[in-house]
Design brief:
The protein is α/β, with parallel strands linked by helices. Helix content is 39%, strand content 18%. The chain has helices spanning 13-17, 26-40, 58-63, 68-92, 114-122, 140-150, 184-189, 197-206, 220-225; strands at residues 6-11, 45-50, 97-101, 110-111, 126-130, 155-160, 181-183, 210-214, 232-235. The structure holds uridine-5'-diphosphate. InterPro entries: AceGlu_kinase-like_sf (IPR036393), Asp/Glu/Uridylate_kinase (IPR001048), Uridylate_kinase (IPR011817), Uridylate_kinase_bac (IPR015963). One of its GO terms (cellular component) is cytoplasm. Pfam families: AA_kinase (PF00696).
Length: 236
Amino acid sequence: MTTYQRVLLKLSGEALMGNLGYGIDPKVVADIAQEISDVISHGIQLAIVVGGGNIFRGVKAASAGMDRATADYVGMIATVMNAMTLQDALERNNVPTRVLTAIAMQEVAEPYIRRRAMRHLEKGRVVIFGAGSGNPFFTTDTTAALRAAEIEAEVVFKATKVDGVYDSDPQLNPNARRYHSLTYNHVLTHDLRVMDGTAIALCKENNIPIMVFDLSVRGNILRAIKGESVGTIVGG
Ligand code: UDP
């Protein structure tokens, strides 16, 4: 038995980058695809929101003088590259997958239609949401919270490079303590770097817990699905 049946997994662009400074590491993507394939074999309905920070970040380009909205659209298009790369890796593991984009790109992906996304999930297809929310000035973290609410996911999995949320930076402070659980309000008032504030507020409003855990530990997604304590859980 698993604790969760329908899960929204947020993968940052950096998660696909591995130790490269930029872009996509095919080996890392292959590992993630293998892990997801294990999850799917347990009958879990999985939707994924991918970021694009490994390729392009709107805020960074805007700070160098680019028009912010244009930069954000470029960032959203970058997420589609990640989505398609992940789809390819999943399909090589025989995982049926659909990419749905919030900006229409009909030659390469389906447009985002909520009911269609839910139908794909019911049929056991992994749904990958590309192009963020389709709106500049937002992030893929916020998109993850939004899509989770829309598709009635029971939980958001925020896969990161650390095994949870700490009271101070564990890289700098050897006595840093990891939280087992946190409230949305604590995260918001202390500005803890779990997801951005808009994403936390959306999850709070819709009562969707957020599980923060280390993606690089093999089997962690499935452990989290089974309700094991693999990181920090943020809830009400
Ligand atoms: N973005 C956007 N609207 C959205 C989602 C993303 O404008 O709804 C843009 C924004 O420029 C952002 C970029 O896409 O910097 C990549 O997404 P994000 O930074 O969230 O990716 P991650 O940090 O997860 O890799």
